[in-house]
Write a structure and sequence with these properties.
binds NADP nicotinamide-adenine-dinucleotide phosphate; 16% strand; two-stranded antiparallel ribbon
Length: 280
């Protein structure tokens, strides 16, 4: 495994978010702690977890074992929609910190919209949690264009990002444009389409021309547009591959060819949590 060079950041309302982070959904127990530790030793400086992943304890262990200074790592976690009523949200944020063994996270997100609880109450609680020092920055995840705008109207603290499914097989141009218009970062989850990128012929061909893998071309396509990526791997040997994205560039023609891979059924994550069927 090769150490990786410095990872650039994107700025949004005072937050500096490393363009590559480690996704941890579905990483459990010893594997999770080892992957987090090794990623940080290699040069990753951003880790994404959530209370729903049931691995915050192990993420905290990996952070501690890595020897990397706390202030040098950007840690994101997310509150599950069943905890969106104000007292529950505050309690959930405290519980996340206790499991992670941190005094604050860098970014605290609302994991999915919850139409059962007024957004004004949830955002009031999220902003308070930030003001109380539990999170340096706050944001949202899986919010549609209409909900982004509603959230921004209701929040009295900056919302620094929207974390959404984003990869070449899915057209997220409307969400991306809305985030940009409001100065929010876009964080791409499932950025290699749950591994599907590795079998794509176009990504493979472009990869051969750059001596890169199809997964790296897929991730480069996103970071070249200042979209933060949080690929997940359970395999230590893939950690360097997924972060070695800053020693080459895709041409305009290559970017356009990759953009054309988007199709109607490109989504890989079940979107039914949101209670909606359309993004906008
Ligand atoms: N906010 C949300 O609602 C939400 C939803 C989904 C995900 N997320 C976050 O986003 C992160 C990433 O998304 P994801 O886990 O859904 O999918 P992903 O990162 O797109 O893909 C992960 C899959 O790809 C494989 N893989 C990793 N690197 C590879 C490479 N270089 N070549 C080929 N295959 C590779 C992994 O297998 P191996 O383990 O075998 O390498 C794993 O099966 C999550 O872990 C989580 O932190 C957030």
């Amino acid at each position: 495994m090769t150490a990786i060079g410095p990872i650039p950041t994107v700025s949004a309302s005072g937050a500096k978010i490393p363009l590559v982070g480690l996704g941890t959904w579905d990483l459990r127990g010893r594997t999770c702690a080892r992957v987090v530790e090794q990623a940080l030793r290699l040069g990753y400086r951003h880790v994404d977890t959530a209370e729903m992943y049931d691995n915050e304890r192990e993420v905290g262990e990996g952070l501690g074992a890595s020897g990397v200074k706390r202030r040098d790592v950007f840690v994101t976690t997310k509150i599950w929609p069943s905890h969106f009523a104000p007292p529950a949200l505050e309690r959930a944020a405290h519980d996340c910190l206790a499991r992670l063994r941190l005094s604050e996270v860098d970014l605290l997100l609302l994991h999915w919209p919850n139409p059962q609880i007024p957004l004004s109450e949830t955002l009031g609680a999220l902003c308070k949690v930030k003001r109380d020092g539990l999170a340096r920055h706050i944001g949202i995840s899986n919010f549609t264009v209409a909900l982004i705008e509603e959230a921004l109207r209701l929040a009295n603290e900056p919302l620094v990002c929207n974390q959404v499914e984003c990869h070449p097989f899915l057209d997220q141009s409307k969400i991306i444009a809305a985030c940009r218009q409001h100065g929010m970062a876009v964080v791409a989850y499932s950025p290699i389409a749950r591994g599907n990128a590795k079998n794509d012929k176009v990504l493979g061909r472009i990869g051969s021309a750059h001596k890169k893998t199809a997964a790296q071309i897929c991730l480069r396509y996103l970071v070249q547009r200042d979209i933060v990526v949080i690929p997940r791997t359970s395999k230590l040997e893939r950690l360097s591959e997924n972060a070695a994205l800053f020693d080459f560039a895709l041409s305009e023609e290559e970017m356009a060819e990759i953009a054309a891979l988007a199709h109607r059924n490109g989504r890989v994550v079940d979107w039914s949590y949101s209670g909606r069927t359309e993004w906008d």
